[in-house]
Amino acid sequence: MNVFVFDIETVPDVVSGRRLHNLDGLRDKEVADIMFHKRREETGGSDFLRLHLQRIVAISAVFRSGNGVKVWSLGEQDTDEKELIQHFFDGIEKFSPTLVSWNGGGFDLPVLHYRALLHGVRAPRYWETGDNDQSFRWNNYLSRFHSRHTDLMDVVAGYQPRANAPLDEIACMLGFPGKMGMDGSKIWDAFRNGEIAAIRNYCETDVLNTYLVYLRFELIRGNLLEEEYEAECKLLRDVLTESGAEHLHEFERAWPAA
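^ thats the sequence. predicted structure below, dont judge the formating
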């Protein structure tokens, strides 16, 4: 079983914003403020930027493979965006894992697509739909209803947008820690302040919540027996307890024992 649960964090792509809106000479913050203002005018209130104008600054993952589970953020704090994206797709190339996300189909993957397009990142395994591997014709990463990518938010909502729910609320409802440290609205300020480590830590706790929801989903659809589910939770708890990272210890302490 190779399961790759992932989450990304983004900031405004001020380079593209500067180019698209003829803002040469302005500082990054000034460019971002104009981008947010234009978006609010466009939407009537929301400043959430269109996906192609979001730059990836962190990709975090839980990887369940063989007898182990790993929690980490791809690359290092100073790894550039192109290399982060290449790491992500290289993992798919090597392991062909089941991808798991919360709203990955509506946000994370489209952002990765646009940024890979921008940087010229090759990912033939990810884009395979059966031309070179017949098994991908009926189950690939791109189809909404195939299982190589399980977007938990989409699936659990029955593919009905009006039934979508925030990860934080679902995680807390199930007794998991939920969001810790910050939220998406604080990422831009944290990035400008050089707090990359805090962003990566926050992204890792988000992806841990997603993984725990995924384990519960595997239980209800019969892929895990009750004792197997408990064993998977214990395995993850042991990994967090033995980790040298304080934010992972904090997550484990906030996760009530069954």
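Strands lie at 2-12, 54-65, 68-73, 98-101, 149-151.
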